[in-house]
Structure formats: structure tokens, C-alpha cells
Specification:
Layout: H1 3-9, E1 17-20, H2 24-31, H3 42-51, E2 54-57, E3 68-71, H4 86-95, E4 104-107, E5 115-118
Parallel strand pairs: 1-2, 3-4
Antiparallel strand pairs: 4-5
Length: about 120
């Protein structure tokens, strides 16, 4: 398990999870308690939304509400069998305007060991 399913399940340790996505349909689905992710049972999303331990948003300015960001995006292999990190760089461009000095973020690609950076 990696990426979003892993981050979603971190709420079990008392962490409140805010999922951010550029796709409003996915955000609406998650906030309605429906799940499009095969590794997470739909009832888990529904229960987490009701318990207020999980919510989703398409408004990336909400980053200011959290203490850390974990970027969970695909890292497919390119034609040379090297990780295509374009999803990571594009996500970085989207969140950068909302980060402040001292903020923790990391990206958790499936093919590359997780990286962390403090701004």
C-alpha cells in the first residue's frame, strides 16, 4: 500500500487527513463518502468523513490548515524506464504559493525512495 491509501490510513493514529486534488469530481466523491480508490473500502471513507478525521478539497490554499504535506502522485516510468517525475513537479508548482517558511512536505512516489524537504 502506498500513496493516498497509506496517508488516508494514517488517520488511525490520530492524525486528521485533508486530501487535496485538482479533480473536483474526486473531491465530491470522497466528501460524499464514496470511494474510487480500490485499496480503500467505501465504508472507510464514509466513516472517516462522518468522524471528521478525513475531508477532501480542491482548494490548495487550505494547505495553511495543515502541519505537513505528503505528495502522493503517480511516478510512471518513461520510455527509458526512468521515473517520470512530472506529476511531482507540477504538484510542487501548485502548492508552492501556499507554503510558508519552516513548513514540512515530502513526496512519496512508489518507485523512488521518499524525499523530504524543509522550506
Amino acid at each position: 500500500m502506498s500513496g493516498f491509501p497509506c496517508r488516508f490510513n494514517s488517520r488511525r493514529s490520530g492524525v486528521t487527513v485533508l486530501g487535496l486534488d485538482i479533480d473536483p469530481a474526486k473531491v465530491e466523491s470522497l466528501n460524499s463518502g464514496r470511494c474510487y480508490i480500490k485499496h480503500i473500502p467505501p465504508e472507510a471513507i464514509s466513516e472517516a468523513v462522518k468522524a471528521r478525521t478525513f475531508s477532501a478539497a480542491a482548494d490548495f490554499s487550505r494547505i495553511k490548515e495543515v502541519e505537513a504535506v505528503i505528495i502522493c502522485v503517480p511516478t510512471p516510468l518513461n520510455k527509458n524506464r526512468e521515473p517520470d517525475i512530472s506529476f511531482i513537479t507540477e504538484t510542487g508548482k501548485i502548492i508552492a504559493p501556499h507554503l510558508t517558511k519552516g513548513f514540512w512536505w515530502c513526496w512519496n512516489p512508489q518507485l523512488i525512495r521518499a524525499r523530504r524537504r524543509r522550506i
